[in-house]
Amino acid sequence: MKTIFFTTVFLRWLGVTSAGVPEKLGCANLPLSPKQRDLCRKKLFLLPSIQDGARLAIAECQNQFRHERWNCSTGQNPPVFGYESTSGTKETAFIYAVMAAGLVHAVTRTCSQDNMTECGCDSRLQGGGSAGEGWHWGGCSDHIQYGTWFSRRFIDNAVKNMSASRGEHTLSTMNQHNSEVGRQAIHRTMSTHCRCHGVSGSCAVKTCWKTMAPFERVGVYLKERYEHSVQVRDRSRRKMRRKDQRRLTVDKQQLLFFNKSPNYCLEDRRQGVVGTRDRRCNRTSSGPDGCNLLCCGRGYNTHLVRRVQRCECKFVWCCYVRCRRCESMNDMHTCK
Ligand SMILES: *[C@@H]1O[C@H](CO)[C@@H](O)[C@H](O)[C@H]1NC(C)=O
Ligand SMILES: *[C@@H]1O[C@H](CO)[C@@H](O)[C@H](O)[C@H]1NC(C)=O
Ligand SMILES: *[C@@H]1O[C@H](CO)[C@@H](O)[C@H](O)[C@H]1NC(C)=O
Ligand SMILES: *[C@@H]1O[C@H](CO)[C@@H](O)[C@H](O)[C@H]1NC(C)=O
Fold first, then answer.
1. What is the per-residue pLDDT across 258-306, written as a single tens digit (0 to 9) for each?
2. Where are the domain boundaries for CATH 3.30.2460.20 in the chain?
3. Does any ligand 3 atom lie closer than 6 A to the CB of residue 279?
4. Separation of 109 CA from ligand 4 center, angstroms?
5. In CA terms, which of 143, 195, 253, 299 is 20 to 30 Å from 186?
6. 283 Cα nearest atom in ligand 4
7. With a 6 A CB cut-off, is 63 part of the ligand 3 pocket?
8. 231 contacts 163 by C-beta, under 8 angstroms
């Protein structure tokens, strides 16, 4: 239960911080668990990073799901994700993964930029490389270990032992597992960049460093994990267990969920589902954003919308661009 408590507290807090409550309130006035408050006080310099991490994660979730029935919309009031943060569905899995990853990303970026005493660039690489092949490590390699540690401490807390190996989960171990998939996503999408030196760009010598991928890449990676997420059984509801269910060995990179998702078609206030009514759809697309799928077969309305654009732009010597205003009428479709 502890993890659930911590994580809902975490999500509540994100709700508060992303809703723009002044940071000056500090740790004492935020809805944190005692342990989180303690961590917050000890690592006060990370307060803005936690906020950034939350924003990054929410924005990327909405980006990845912009064409889907569930579009990762967040409530104005905490808890941010409402039903989805506790439903034990694939969506819960994605939320936990992207939140944990966002925190690692933001904390690591702060560490790299500011090279602080507590955390900085990855110094283990300094001086290494291969002189024979003409390259060496240099610059600032992102040191994700600190951010990963912080994300674990802040989000996961106390549950030490996961029973993933036995294929049995509770909601808290499931959340924790999925958070870890998110943190590993940062690790797995890292890449090496190099800069050339040498006479007139001959690239005789290269300086290389490791960087995290832009968070959008991490989002794409996690969205793929979401598409291939695996249903596991809920240990706390043994009665529901099917006798013939074989024991799954769960891959560390797979997102896990317990419950089938609702279809997200119709509004269900009790579950915080907003439904797809009035969502904009694409009449010609056969993907999830197509009117057929997005509107769940209810049909759609067509609106004529006027669009004004700059057009026929010409460069005028010297030095500006002159354009005309062009109007066009476009069809827009929204779900019934
Ligand atoms: C970061 O700080 C350490 C120690 O203060 C220093 O040795 C290192 O060169 C710095 N790295 C960068 C990239 O500024
Ligand atoms: C965690 O659980 C596994 C399997 O139940 C057990 O073998 C292992 O010793 C446990 N680890 C800790 C640190 O308790
Ligand atoms: C998600 O869809 C709802 C309507 O179903 C809309 O009100 C909301 O703005 C959308 N959220 C995002 C982030 O696009
Ligand atoms: C609608 O879908 C088609 C086919 O996938 C695509 O070519 C087109 O750009 C989409 N239109 C909009 C407005 O997104």
1. 889 999 999 888 877 889 999 999 999 999 999 999 999 999 999 999 9
2. 276-335
3. yes
4. 35
5. 195
6. 1
7. no
8. no
Mutational test site, ligand 2, from 161, 165, 176, 177, max ligand atoms within 8 Å of CB: 161
Residue 221 tokens, joined: 């990676």
- Any bridge partners for residue 232, and if so which? none
Contact 209, 193 (CB under 8 A): yes
Kindly state if the Cβ of 165 falls inside 6 Å of ligand 1. no
Residue in 72, 274, 289, 335 to alter for ligand 3 test, most ligand atoms within 8 A of Cβ = 274
Non-local (6+) Cβ contacts of 83 within 8 A are: 271, 272, 273
Report yes or no on whether pTM surpasses 0.85: no
User: CA 279: distance to chain centroid?
Assistant: 23
Residue 334 near residue 280 (C-beta atoms within 8 A):
yes
Residue of 204, 98, 201, 191 lying closest to 144 (CA atoms): 191
Q: Is the CB of 171 under 6 A from ligand 1?
A: no
The residue among 317, 318, 240, 335 whose CA lies nearest residue 281 is 335
Distances (CA, A) of 248 to 31, 51, 163, 172, 245: 37, 37, 12, 18, 8
Res 5: pLDDT: 42
- Numbers of helices and strands, H then E, in the chain: 8, 11
Which ligand 1 atom is the nearest neighbour of the CA of 117? 5
CB-ligand 1 contact for 121 (6 Å cutoff): yes
Cis status of the peptide bond prior to 79, with omega within 30 of 0? yes
Rounded percentage of the chain residues whose pLDDT exceeds 70: 79
At 85, give phi and psi (nearest 5°): -80, -15
Q: Do residues 236 and 67 lie in contact, with contact meaning Cβ atoms separated by under 8 Å?
A: no
- Write the DSSP assignment of 229-282 as a string of letters: -EE-EEGGGGGG--TTPPPPPPPTT--EESSPPP---S-BGGGTB--STT-EEB
